Amino acid sequence: MLDIQKIRNDFPILEQKVYGKPLVYFDNAATSQTPECVVNTIRDGYDRINANVHRGVHFLSQEATEGHENARKRVQQYLHAAHDYEIIFTRGTTESINLVASSFGDAFLKDGDEIILSEMEHHANIVPWQLLQNRKKIILRVVPIDENGELKMDVFRSLFNEKTKLVSLSHISNVLGTVNPIKEIISISHSHDVPVLLDGAQAAPHTRIDVQDLDVDFYVLSAHKMYGPTGIGVLYGKEKWLNVMPPYQGGGEMISHVSFEKTTFNELPYKFEAGTPDYIGTMAFATALDYIESIGIENIAAHEQDLLRYTTGQLMQIDGMRIFGTAHEKSAVISFLVKDIHHYDMGMLLDKLGFATRTGHHCAQPLMQALGVEGVLRASFAVYNTKEEADAFVAAVDRVAKMF
Ligand code: PMP
């Protein structure tokens, strides 16, 4: 059993009141809160280490370089990647996908080629491919979802043909919580010789990820959803792909030699890391991963699953409750509407009672269209949330629902 109170003590932000009410933070799928140890790494980084990496011969630069490269090794270990140079630091999931869309797209896609996405994708896994469509006449094939919010796997299977060049899907949906059958997806795709990118933004905080066991080609995530700092993300890519992909951005760090006649590029991972990286952010992310491991990702997931089951059961008692996403395997997000109350009105009133939730389309407008709604209200859990908070939340939703 986790000592949640002890864990909560690591997050000073949770102690505060908003509008005179105790804060209940249920917007973790958007951004998780940051434990003190991560903030301490940031403070210590600026207090003691701050210097540009990879360039200086001086002591601080070496310290910063070592911290940054150790962070890369920490991420490698966390994802069980074969090599540390398969870990590319980015600004987040969005930038990671843009990197692949641009670089893989330039190298391997030609007019008429196809990419498989799904109806439940976040805009971050739609728009970069559409931007690529401005340069190449590629076709996006979209896997629909069924009434539980699960991918229609028979349709997925039927979408492959000799033009299919990439499958790019979310591991876990940020709205429905659906955990997609990624092993099956990867195995089907590879049987057609098609590589797979998984958007792990919602999975990495809740599930153990082993990129070698999955045999996934690209895996992307954001640190700020994993108790880490904002502005840091990861692109894991298999060496065989990263080696043959062209650089994404040009500048310092990513070159081997520059002249006006010809420039040669640095080796992995630096080829994809133009400019000064957020080395203090990467160190703080490594601390966040240590923090997760100190609690145990399985323990975190079990606690969140308890909260999910309990809160779902309680919310279902409310008259007019509609929950979106009833997948077999579901992560700890609950998207819902009550009667015909507008999600924004409900969210605003809950906010005034101290509950931080998310309202709107959740950067998944095509999914909203598939669900036949304009938006939903979403509560999402993290390790520091409690059953008492869930009880208070259910009571507040009930109270607000009765006001309409
Ligand atoms: N994909 C999914 C599934 C997400 O939930 C999010 C964050 N809401 C993103 C991509 C984008 O992540 P970021 O804004 O950190 O780049």
TrEMBL record:
Instruction: Tell me the cofactors it needs.
Output: pyridoxal 5'-phosphate
Q: Which domain of life is it from?
A: Bacteria
Molecular function GO terms recorded: cysteine desulfurase activity; lyase activity; pyridoxal phosphate binding
Q: Which reaction does it catalyse?
A: (sulfur carrier)-H + L-cysteine = (sulfur carrier)-SH + L-alanine
Q: Which GO terms describe its biological process?
A: cysteine metabolic process
Q: Which UniProt keywords are present, listed alphabetically?
A: Lyase, Pyridoxal phosphate, Transferase
Domain Aminotransferase class V spans what residues? 24-393
Q: Which InterPro entries match?
A: Aminotrans_V_dom, Aminotrans_V_PyrdxlP_BS, Cys_dSase_SufS, Cysteine_dSase, PyrdxlP-dep_Trfase, PyrdxlP-dep_Trfase_major, PyrdxlP-dep_Trfase_small
State which Enzyme Commission number(s) the record gives.
2.8.1.7
Kindly provide the name given to this protein in its UniProt entry: Cysteine desulfurase
Identify the taxonomic lineage of the organism of origin: Bacteria, Pseudomonadati, Bacteroidota, Bacteroidia, Bacteroidales
